[in-house]
Amino acid sequence: MSTVSARIHLPATPRSVVAARRMLRELLSVWGAPQDREDAELLATELVANVVDHVGGEQALILEVDLADDWLRIGVVDGSAVRPVVQELSGVRPRGRGLAMIAAIATRWGVEEHHGGKRVWLDLVPAAAPGAAPTGLAPAPRGDGAGDRERQTKESTR
Question: What is the 3-state secondary structure (H, E, C) of 77-146?
Answer without folding.
Answer: EECCCCCCCCCCCCCCCCCCCHHHHHHHHCCEEEEEEECCEEEEEEEECCCCCCCCCCCCCCCCCCCCCH
